[in-house]
Design brief:
Rossmann fold; four-stranded parallel sheet; alpha/beta; 395 residues; 41% helix; five-stranded parallel sheet
């Protein structure tokens, strides 16, 4: 039994998703903060080289602590504190916050990151918070934890400081409905035109973006102001599972309802999402726009991240082709089960006739046998940055 359990967690012919540390760094990338990954030197190249597309256009203060074996064994946290303070002093502009992320060794030895954050706040007079990561989970977990930590730390501060939401006030004056975009990261939306088109769709439907907790473009830039504006919105739109924890926090603490779904999936589906947004505002309830449209017995399957592929499966159903979702990312967004490990994924692929997903999933094997059989199944390529990186990326 134990061996079967281990076998289900092993990946032999397909890669694992980008890690939780990459998800956290990506989620915080455009908010003008300082993100410090407590890890040995060199590990930052994994995130920089493979998981981030924005370096060429916009830099971000993301650093590795350069954890040494002697520091880990002796518990030399002072070096981390001193290095962070030195880095803050060296930056041309004061960061909006300091975020500490974990890696396996500090997690194993029980580094007290909450205490380190309190010390950093006293030493720098800059808000500091801890994002739980340990490099053992996928990017959705790290990204979701990062946005949740950001919400817990920064929205409360802005409320205490009496910060006014200029965008929210303008929206109420013009009777427009303001919406937060949560989880709009390059992992699911690598191209600027996707982001711009989403803004256009929302505007044409009578919504104004109050805050974008994700990625921006030249036409629709993102800054730290978006963080403080979020608590003034009428509703939140969870555009990927990275945004779900922040949406829950804003709902529980500020009464801002949220809707889960990606309007870019199709014209028919965007109408459902926008109607759900209006219904959520009026009734103050949470809605999942795609869940009721999924068909677990359908022969067409969409494999990958919950919100993106779930929305596409719903769009397929609306066009006349019932579809189901094979969820392979960890962060929970209403959809069960979660298929973890190559064996489980391969076995699930065998049940479908038509599959939409990243091409690398074709190689998933169960007991040496491919789950996808090109002689009897059809595969529709939909590359996913978190799975295949830049391999199929259109620059």
């Amino acid at each position: 039994m134990k061996n079967n359990r281990i076998r289900k967690q092993v990946y032999t012919h397909i890669p694992v998703y980008s890690g939780d540390v990459s998800g956290a760094a990506s989620a915080l990338y455009e908010f003008d903060g300082l993100t410090v990954i407590h890890d040995p030197s060199g590990c930052n190249s994994t995130y920089n080289t493979f998981d981030e597309l924005r370096w060429a256009k916009r830099e971000s203060a993301i650093y590795i602590s350069g954890l040494r074996e002697s520091d880990a064994i002796n518990g030399n946290d002072q070096r981390l504190l001193d290095d962070v303070v030195t880095t803050v002093d060296a930056l041309s502009e004061k960061p909006s916050f300091i975020a500490l992320c974990n890696s396996p060794v500090p997690d194993i030895i029980g580094t007290d990151f909450a205490a380190l954050c309190r010390l950093l706040e006293k030493m720098t007079q800059i808000p500091a918070f801890y994002v739980y990561t340990n490099a053992m989970h996928d990017y959705t977990v790290g990204g979701a934890n990062a946005l949740e930590a950001l919400a817990e730390k920064m929205t409360a501060k802005e409320r205490i400081d009496g910060h006014a939401c200029e965008i929210g006030a303008a929206n109420h004056a013009s009777h427009a409905k303001s919406v937060n975009l949560l989880g709009l990261t390059p992992f699911e939306f690598p191209y600027d035109e996707q982001v711009d088109h989403l803004y256009d769709l929302l505007e044409s439907a009578g919504f104004t973006v109050c805050a974008n907790w994700g990625r921006g473009t030249k036409k629709h830039p993102v800054s730290f102001k978006d963080v403080s504006h979020a608590s003034c919105a009428d509703v939140s739109l969870v555009i990927s599972s990275i945004g779900i924890k922040a949406a829950m926090y804003l709902y529980e603490n500020y009464g801002i309802p949220y809707v889960i779904g990606n309007p870019l999936a199709s014209d028919d589906f965007d109408s459902i999402v926008f109607n759900d947004l209006l219904a959520s505002i009026s009734s103050q309830v949470v809605k999942n726009s795609y869940l009721s449209l999924l068909d677990d017995s359908a022969s067409t399957a969409f494999i990958g991240e919950s919100v993106t592929m779930g929305s596409e499966a719903a769009a397929s159903a609306l066009s006349g082709t019932p579809a189901r979702l094979i969820r392979t990312t960890e962060c929970q967004v209403d959809v069960k089960p979660f298929f973890h490990g190559e064996t489980e994924i391969a076995e699930e692929l065998k049940k479908a006739a038509v599959i939409h997903g990243d091409p690398l999933f074709k190689n998933a094997r169960s007991h040496g046998v491919r789950g996808f059989d090109a002689t009897r199944q059809t595969w529709i390529d939909e590359p996913h940055l978190a799975m295949s990186g830049r391999l199929y990326f259109r620059d």
